[in-house]
Write a sequence for this structure.
């Protein structure tokens, strides 16, 4: 088997549901979604208008699922979708959209455009129009277990390293633990401090947890490229490991799309509810704070701001928790002008950062974030997604801005009460 | 056909045809959308989909501050012509009498001079909206034949209604009234086949949007 | 009778035609003085609300001349308080109004003796004289 | 009165003074809605006018039009006008009947061939000639026969002009107006149910005065009388403009004389002189009396959806259509929706699992 236009169109047909039909029926081409999309606002290229990115899907809906549209097609009033068009749309759907869902928040008729982009990618991938880099990442995720090719020995090395630093062991494959922690490849490779930060917090709060050696990867290339079959396979690995270790909850780490994949899409991908809970690390930290199990001393004096990872706040619902946590450790916490569920995307989510072809565009789009930062001049940015953090660092460098990008979990860990490192960040 | 016969035809048989096409078409379209259905969400809910959906139906009437700042003209002109259109359609005495006859319900009207002024404002807003569509790069890029057609059939009843009320023009007033009614019938007939459907489907779209977010505990 | 109904009869200045009419009359008077041009306004060709016509006539008032003709039924020719402005009302034999005019002129033509009538009267007088002489 | 006598001579013979004649001309000008400045010209024309022969045919009618015209029995201006014509045939008014009456008609036609005026009231049934006959002659045949030698035809009343009440749905007699049958003669329509009497005489006066037919609108009506709508000349118009309406016949609005639009007034689409000429020697007209205009001078006024239904209301039962349309739409929509669902099911069933080997196009 191989990808083909037919398979792609069939995937479109399969994906179209009542919300999609309602959304397409409602669009009046007001153009407001363009002004909500950083890829348009930073390029002024009208072809990057969010709703336009869905044109082939719209045509399939019209021709397949509306009475009038069927006739229009029979009379030659609309053209069928061609492979060439899908080629043209590939960059619109993958390179210039992070599925951040900001357009979905401003559309006056209420169209959830990100919801439809996610669906459209199913057809694009099935038609063989996914970006080569994403295809590669997805293949690695399935065959190796990580889109970045991170294997268990690499994780084990980082754990050993952390244990040496911490002076206590990190639980791996502990059956019956309350929580099973997932990690993104980026955390393992780029931000291994995250592991020791979590370990210290959980020790401090007395949380029973473990890491599975069989399913530690939190990211899910399947939902980025838009292949539910593959996404389901990746979710099943986690479900199996959670079942094997008999954990009560699975922790989604500081990674946007990983949270979307395991928390919201997961049960729908595998077609059954979980028998465990999924919590985001920030949700868990906030719960610990509320229970009084998370205590900190001292406060960060630098001016901090929080960058909401789209899939965690706008699309994931974890909005207030990071703010409560930050207020616990920051003296000078300032919000960016548009924040929370209206935050601007960094420009790298939804597979854009894995897609080398889109590098220039995402750095250009980062200008939006720069403008936001220029309005408040923070000393450092705190976020909760390693993908955001990497791109924020890239972008800041590109625009010559000197500003550290911190992990919220790590920041909390630094101010843990009773921690020898409290207050000595550097 | 004399002007008197034309007037009787548009008030009678033509209105029957237009009403039939309009309602049949709208109901078919709505049924087609709803019948496509959506899969049950198997993820554990954080919030209520129904509450979120209902909330968004209303909350989306208020644009977010950023959009208002960046697209002030678009938002304001859009609001003016929508509100104006509804004021003229639903609060002008003769129109209320029509609804009363068909629906058997009535409501208070607005003083005629206010409706008159609203009509002018609405027509100006619609002209401004068209100018904006022609000049704004995004809107011009997105717009196709249908967008302009829909604009035309929306402004026609307002213009013809204004002329008919003030009895302006080369044609006799009863013909003006007939043309006005005819323009509304044109609007009704093309309604189900075009994006004018958004007048009904935006409730559904907003509901779905709000429900998807609400389920995850987000106010969209 | 219901007082409310009476209010309708007395009527307010509904059509707002009274004031413009008075202005028209003023212009006609100016014209009469300037070049002797006469003006006739047919009151029945104007849309007037109940009471408006009376209001107009009240404003014009009564002047020095009141004439009553008997030609094909009675007619009343009245000079208003503004010399040169005449109200002419024609009735039929049943005293029903068949015409109502405002004339702006030295004297309505109808008041003058008419050539044909004078001629006919002369004939009659002559006949009478011949008969008397016999 | 001899037929060669001019109108001026006739009046003088009746002992009417020149003053009387001038008064008559002034009243006639007012009647014809002509500017008073035209009185001398009218006087000159009428002086020389010769009395025309008039044949009056009544078909499917109620005699209301004749009543309207003849109701006043004292000499009025209208009466005088009638005195100056030679009404040679009018089966309601003439003393003769039967063969004698028909003989009079034929004699008048022969004597004035090509010159007489034919006045018609009532519509003509085409469904069955027996529906309405005079002296055994069907209305249609009598009209066609009499119209041949007419100089002009005046259709008096809405029935003759537009079919009127007999023509109303479902039109059991197949009634048609005069204009449906006669295409080669000038026809002046004087609609109204009944028409304003002075309008009938006004048109006759015009014909007498100028020997021509007056300027007509597209519905064949004299512009002088039908040039403005009731609404445009209505003294209650300011209330319409302000949006002040009587809601019922006895509410405050009705007592205050507010606009009768909501009570079904057809004034905005009705052309007639009622609002200025008024009725009963200029006393009043329906709206002044507190009743909405029925629109009786318009074609098909009887089928306009109801006299007490506002003009903006549909003329037919839209509610039922709406209910049927929604029902049919729901049925069709559900059927189409079911087809869509079946199609989606089929597609889902045919879904081929996408694996990492399926992400690139085959050769």
């Amino acid at each position: 088997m191989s990808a083909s236009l037919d398979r792609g169109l069939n995937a479109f047909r399969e994906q179209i549901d009542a919300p999609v039909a309602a959304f397409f029926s409602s669009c009046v081409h007001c153009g407001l979604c363009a002004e909500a999309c950083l890829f348009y606002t930073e390029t002024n290229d009208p072809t990057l208008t969010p709703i336009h990115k869905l044109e082939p899907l719209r045509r399939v809906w019209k021709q397949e699922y509306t009475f009038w549209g069927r006739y229009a097609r029979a009379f030659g009033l609309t053209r069928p979708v061609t492979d060439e068009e899908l080629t043209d749309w590939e960059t619109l759907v993958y390179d210039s959209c992070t599925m951040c869902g900001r357009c979905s928040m401003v559309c006056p008729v209420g169209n959830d455009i990100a919801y439809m982009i996610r669906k459209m990618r199913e057809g694009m991938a099935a038609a063989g129009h996914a970006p080569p880099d994403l295809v590669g990442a997805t293949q690695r995720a399935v065959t190796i277990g990580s889109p970045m090719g991170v294997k268990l020995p690499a994780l084990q090395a980082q754990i050993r390293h952390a244990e040496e630093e911490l002076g206590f062991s990190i639980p791996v494959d502990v059956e019956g633990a309350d929580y099973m922690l997932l990690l993104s490849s980026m955390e393992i490779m780029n931000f291994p401090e995250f592991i020791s930060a979590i370990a210290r917090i959980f020790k401090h709060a007395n949380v029973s947890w473990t890491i599975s050696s069989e399913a530690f990867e939190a990211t899910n290339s399947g939902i980025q490229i838009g292949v539910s079959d593959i996404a389901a396979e990746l979710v099943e690995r986690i479900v199996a490991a959670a079942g094997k270790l008999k954990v009560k909850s699975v922790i989604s780490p500081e990674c946007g799309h990983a949270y979307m994949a395991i928390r919201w899409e997961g049960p729908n991908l595998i077609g059954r509810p979980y028998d465990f809970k999924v919590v985001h690390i920030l949700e868990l930290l906030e719960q610990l704070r509320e229970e009084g199990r998370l205590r900190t001393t001292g406060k960060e004096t630098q001016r901090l701001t929080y960058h909401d990872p789209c899939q965690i706040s706008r699309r994931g619902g974890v909005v207030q928790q990071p703010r409560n946590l930050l207020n616990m450790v920051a003296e000078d916490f300032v919000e960016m002008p548009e924040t929370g569920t209206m935050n601007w995307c960094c420009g790298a989510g939804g597979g854009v950062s894995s897609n080398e072809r889109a590098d220039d565009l995402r750095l250009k789009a980062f200008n939006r974030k720069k403008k936001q930062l220029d309005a408040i001049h923070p000393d450092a940015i705190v976020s909760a997604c390693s993908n955001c953090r990497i791109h924020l660092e890239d972008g800041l460098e590109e625009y010559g801005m000197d500003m550290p990008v911190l992990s919220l979990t790590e920041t909390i860990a630094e101010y843990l009460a009773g921690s020898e490192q409290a207050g000595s960040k550097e | 056909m004399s002007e008197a016969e034309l007037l009787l035809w548009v008030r009678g048989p033509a209105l029957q045809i237009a009403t039939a096409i309009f309602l049949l078409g709208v109901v078919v379209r709505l049924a087609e959308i709803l019948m496509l259905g959506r899969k049950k969400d198997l993820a554990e809910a954080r919030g209520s989909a129904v509450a979120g959906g209902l909330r968004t139906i209303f909350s989306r009437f208020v644009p977010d501050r950023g959009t208002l700042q960046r697209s002030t003209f678009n938002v304001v002109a859009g609001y003016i012509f929508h509100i104006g259109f509804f004021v003229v359609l639903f609060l002008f005495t003769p129109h209320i009498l029509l609804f009363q006859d068909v629906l058997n319900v009535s409501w208070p009207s607005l003083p005629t001079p206010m409706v008159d002024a609203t009509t002018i404002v609405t027509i100006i807003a619609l002209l401004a909206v068209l100018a904006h569509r022609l000049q704004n790069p995004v809107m011009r890029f997105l717009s196709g034949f249908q967008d302009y057609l829909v604009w035309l059939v929306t402004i026609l009843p307002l213009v013809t209604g204004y002329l008919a009320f003030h009895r302006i023009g080369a044609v006799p007033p009863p013909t003006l009234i007939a043309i006005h009614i005819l323009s509304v019938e044109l609007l009704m007939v093309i309604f189900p086949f075009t994006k004018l459907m958004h007048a009904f489907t935006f409730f559904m779209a907003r509901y779905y949007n709000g429900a998807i977010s609400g389920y995850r505990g987000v106010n969209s | 009778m219901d007082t409310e109904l009476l209010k309708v009869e007395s009527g307010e200045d509904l059509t707002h035609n009274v004031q413009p009419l008075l202005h028209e009359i003023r212009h006609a008077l100016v014209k009469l003085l300037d070049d002797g041009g006469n003006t006739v306004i047919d009151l029945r060709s104007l849309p007037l609300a109940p009471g408006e016509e009376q209001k107009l006539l009240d404003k014009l008032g009564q002047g020095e001349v009141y004439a009553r003709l008997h030609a094909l039924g009675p007619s009343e020719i009245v000079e208003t308080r503004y010399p040169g402005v005449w109200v002419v009302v024609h009735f039929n034999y049943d005293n029903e109004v068949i015409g109502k005019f405002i004339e702006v002129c030295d004297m309505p033509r109808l008041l003058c003796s008419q050539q044909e009538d004078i001629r006919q009267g002369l004939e009659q007088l002559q006949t009478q004289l011949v008969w008397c002489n016999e | 009165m001899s037929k060669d006598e001019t109108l001026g001579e006739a009046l003088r013979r009746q002992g009417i003074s020149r003053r009387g004649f001038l008064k008559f001309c002034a009243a006639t000008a007012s009647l014809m809605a002509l500017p008073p400045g035209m009185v001398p010209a009218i006087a000159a024309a009428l002086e020389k006018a010769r009395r025309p022969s008039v044949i009056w045919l009544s078909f499917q009618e109620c005699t209301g039009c004749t009543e309207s015209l003849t109701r006043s029995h004292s000499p009025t201006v209208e009466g005088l006008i009638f005195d100056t014509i030679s009404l040679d045939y009018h089966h309601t008014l003439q003393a003769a009947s039967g063969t004698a009456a028909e003989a009079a008609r034929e004699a008048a036609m022969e004597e004035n061939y090509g010159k007489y005026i034919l006045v018609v009231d009532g519509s003509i049934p085409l469904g069955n000639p027996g529906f309405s006959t005079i002296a055994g002659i069907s209305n249609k045949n009598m009209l066609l026969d009499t119209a041949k030698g007419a100089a002009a035809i005046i259709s008096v009343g809405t029935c003759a002009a537009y079919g009127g009440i007999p023509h109303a749905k479902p039109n059991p007699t197949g009634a048609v107006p005069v204009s449906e049958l006669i295409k080669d003669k000038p026809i002046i329509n004087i609609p109204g149910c009944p028409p304003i009497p002075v309008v009938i005489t006004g048109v006759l006066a015009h014909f007498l005065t100028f020997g021509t037919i007056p300027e007509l609108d597209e519905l064949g009506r004299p512009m002088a009388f039908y040039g403005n709508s009731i609404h445009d000349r209505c003294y209650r118009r300011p209330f319409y403009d302000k949006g002040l309406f009587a809601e019922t016949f006895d509410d405050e609005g009705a007592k205050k004389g507010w606009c009768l639009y909501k009570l079904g007034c057809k004034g905005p689409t009705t052309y007639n002189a009622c609002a200025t000429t008024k009725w009963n020697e200029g006393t009043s007209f329906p709206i002044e009396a507190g009743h909405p205009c029925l629109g009786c001078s318009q074609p098909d006024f009887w089928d306009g959806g109801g006299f007490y239904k506002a003009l903006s209301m549909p003329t037919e039962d839209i509610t039922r259509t709406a209910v049927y349309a929604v029902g049919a739409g729901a049925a069709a929509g559900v059927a189409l929706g079911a087809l869509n669902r079946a199609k989606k099911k089929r597609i889902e069933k045919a879904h081929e699992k996408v694996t990492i080997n399926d992400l690139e196009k085959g050769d």
In short: Chain A has 22 helices and eight strands.
